[in-house]
Design goal:
By secondary structure, this protein is an alpha+beta fold. The chain folds into three domains: 107 residues, no CATH class; 114 residues, Butyryl-CoA Dehydrogenase, subunit A, domain 2; 140 residues, Butyryl-CoA Dehydrogenase, subunit A, domain 3 (Up-down Bundle). It is 46% helix and 14% strand. The chain is built from 13 helices and ten strands. The strands form three sheets. A four-stranded mixed sheet has the order 1-4-5-8. Strands 2-3-7-6 form a four-stranded antiparallel sheet, with no helix packed on it. Helix 1 packs antiparallel against helix 4 and helix 11 runs antiparallel to helix 13. The radius of gyration is 22 Å and the shape is globular. The two termini are 14 Å apart. The structure holds flavin-adenine dinucleotide. The site of flavin-adenine dinucleotide has 19 residues, from strand 1, strand 3 and helix 13.
Length: 410
Amino acid sequence: MDFTISDEARETADGVLGFIRRYVEPIEKEHAELLGDERAQYDNRGLLMPDVLKLKTQVRMAAAEAGFYTMFGHEALGGGGLGELSLVHIQEELNRVCGPSRVLIHENVIPSVFTNGLSPILLQLEQSVRDKYVAGIASGEKTLCFGLSESGAGSDVQRIRTRAVRDGDEWVINGSKQWISNAPYADYCILFAVTDPELNSQRRGGITAFFVDTSSEGFDCSSVIPILGHVGSRIGIVNVDNLRVPHDHIIGEVDEGLKLALLGISKGRLSMSAMCVGLARWALGMAVDYAQQRETFGSKIGEHQAIQIKLAEMAMDIYASKSALVRTAWLVEQKQRAIKETSMTKAMCTEMLSRVTDTAMQVHGAMGLTNELRLEEAWRHARTLRIPDGTSEIQRRTIAGRLLSGDSEL
Ligand SMILES: Cc1cc2nc3c(=O)[nH]c(=O)nc-3n(C[C@H](O)[C@H](O)[C@H](O)COP(=O)(O)OP(=O)(O)OC[C@H]3O[C@@H](n4cnc5c(N)ncnc54)[C@H](O)[C@@H]3O)c2cc1C
């Protein structure tokens, strides 16, 4: 096994951080009032204001021009083709240095590599359709969303009820999707619908993925779901009402849509896990700094053993998760399926981040609770990550399923 981080990955991470310093931070400074206050960023329905969306597009397009936004995309889509070890290093560095949830940075400098940007799912589009849409996505001008979950179907995706019926050269789709990231702002949606109820009820397929232009008649995403204390949201409810989609906009094969969800899932989960390791290191860095400054009972709090143990345990937790992450990234880069390893890594890293951010807040005392330090923002973000992309329970279900079917190598 060779986990060496290549010079290319190191230089690219430095390039990304340099781009953020030179290009994004001056914009953040110029628009500090807007970007520093959620109440200014969202309208009264919880939707992002046009000025914020414009700035996000500006950063995305500059990141795409610099080659960062597309660097993990497949070469056949015009991406840079960087592998998983590079992905986890760069994503960790970005989050370690930048901290949590900066409106212009997260999702704009590097997209979520599976559900937005040059997703590997786009490789399954018919060539003529790909030619029509991919350039706009690669340039950062257009964005995507991934419309699978519904109010009655999350972990158990076979239970979706959105229905597509063929009508000549088109499909007519009706139904509703919930919890769809970026849906209110996306130009295109990868929309999943039942095309064969019989197969679907037998859990043998029967679900098809469609590439949908969100400006089409019958597609609506005007309501969002704010979560965890935010005043607005990126997560939307999509309603489709007699939406007509051309047959050639089917992604992959009819009735085989759920297989697409497996195409880039390991890359997506690795990317999320690397974000967790980076944010945890950011939080630990804050805790170590504070422990060296804050004094109680005549000494720095870092001299109290109770605080030292917290710092040590945070480091142990991060080190274990990072080790698992890098090993799994290596396995995936070697073209191994690494199903249980990816699930273990996603569960370990997201759960580790919840513990580490919580402890970092404790080390800071009341200061840890302030909005100013943004530790509470990282902690809230950590709490969300144990649900999407497979909950912690579903990851354990996958791991146990693999063990029980003979995949016991560790
Ligand atoms: C921030 C965020 C962003 C999201 N973005 C998207 C998106 O872009 N596109 C999209 O399609 N979806 C998205 N989702 C939806 C997400 O995929 C689902 O919320 C997730 O799969 C869980 O489904 P659920 O919420 O319906 O919970 P349920 O499936 O109803 O589960 C409820 C509880 O039961 C547990 N559970 C369920 N089944 C089992 C089992 N077999 N064994 C043990 N425990 C079980 C779960 O772990 C959970 O604790 C997003 C969700 C969030 C929170």
